[in-house]
Design goal:
- The protein has helices spanning 64-72, 111-116, 126-139, 155-167, 185-202, 213-219, 250-264; strands at 22-33, 36-48, 53-57, 79-84, 87-88, 96-99, 173-177, 205-209, 222-226, 233-238.
- It is α/β, with parallel strands linked by helices.
- The protein has a 6-stranded mixed β-sheet, sandwiched between helices. The chain has a 4-stranded antiparallel β-sheet with strand order 2-1-4-5, with helices on one face.
- The longest helix is centred in the C-terminal third of the chain and has 18 residues, at 185-202.
Length: 287
């Protein structure tokens, strides 16, 4: 298989003197609501290295999804600068792919045809296009469903198609806007693990937006917590836990609690320490 492989996956805390792949610098964004400006993002700064997996979390309305739209080039009306590999983002580009919470598949197209839409701007022969689509059908584990239509797929399978469509053009950066938010818990965990496997094979740089602190800490190298609107960085937390990670492990639990505290503004619960008591008669212990 000739899946994309831009770099080896980033390890949290590693030294890297290379210029970042993505750089947000003093990015601000307003919307007009009833003729009045509504400030959504204020002076946002973030650098992302090649191969890194970043998660952005925060309360609803803090500008998480707007940041993805700005980076992918769907919205170019903002202040500040966004650069990819040192070049200003002025519109959409094949080096950036995006997957939304809704799979947004065309119901009249098959799995293969929906994935092939990601190649619409690539100058490939028909044979090259067929081989590439087949490669990414295999990558997301949908072999045997090439001719199926969206109504014949489960929600998780539909999201696999959307991920394949986002990857098929060999983007250096994959943007994920809560792609697993509408799925049941079991399917969500399965696709999270599949995403990590795809990242391991491809080396693609990933920027994930999510409301889920557990998802953010399980998947990413760094978690960026945004303040409520207008969105700006409140905290940056390194997830320095090697892969493969254990969801129920104590290290991830502590990091997840740190992320939740930053999102909600609550204090950490006091740690309960068990102590052995000698000589206490069993009948004096209340149950």
């Amino acid at each position: 298989m000739n899946a994309i492989n831009h770099s080896t996956p980033y390890a949290a805390g590693q030294a890297d003197t290379a210029a970042p792949l993505v750089r947000f610098k003093n990015v601000s964004k307003d919307f007009s609501v009833d003729g009045q400006p509504l400030e959504v993002i204020r002076d946002f700064n973030l650098s992302i290295d090649e191969g890194e997996f970043i998660a952005i979390v925060g309360a609803s309305g803090c500008g998480k999804s707007t940041l993805l739209r700005l980076l992918v080039g769907l919205d170019t009306d903002f202040n500040g600068s966004i650069q990819v590999d040192g070049q200003a983002v002025t519109g959409i580009g094949s080096e950036r792919g995006i997957v939304f919470q809704e799979h947004r598949l065309f119901p009249w197209l098959t799995v293969e045809q929906n994935i092939a839409l990601g190649l619409i701007n690539d100058h490939l022969t028909q044979g090259e296009r067929v081989r590439k689509v087949h490669e990414f059908v295999q990558l997301v584990g949908l072999s045997g469903f090439e001719s199926a239509y969206p109504h014949q797929l489960s929600g998780g399978m539909s999201q696999r198609v959307a991920i394949a469509r986002g990857l098929v053009a060999n983007p250096r950066i994959l943007l994920l806007d809560e792609p697993f938010g509408a799925l049941d818990a079991l399917t969500r965990q399965q696709l999270q693990d599949e995403l990590l496997a795809i990242r391991e094979r491809s080396g693609v740089t990933i920027l994930l937006v999510t409301h889920d602190a557990e998802e953010a800490t399980y998947l990413s190298d760094r978690v960026i917590v945004l303040e409520p609107r207008p969105g700006r960085t409140k905290a940056e937390i390194d997830i320095d836990v090697p892969h493969p990670r254990v969801r129920t492990g104590f290290a991830l639990h502590e990091l997840r609690e740190r992320v939740l505290q930053q999102i909600t503004g609550t204090e950490a619960a006091p740690r309960v320490v068990a102590r052995r008591v000698e000589g206490l008669r069993p009948e004096l212990i209340a149950f």
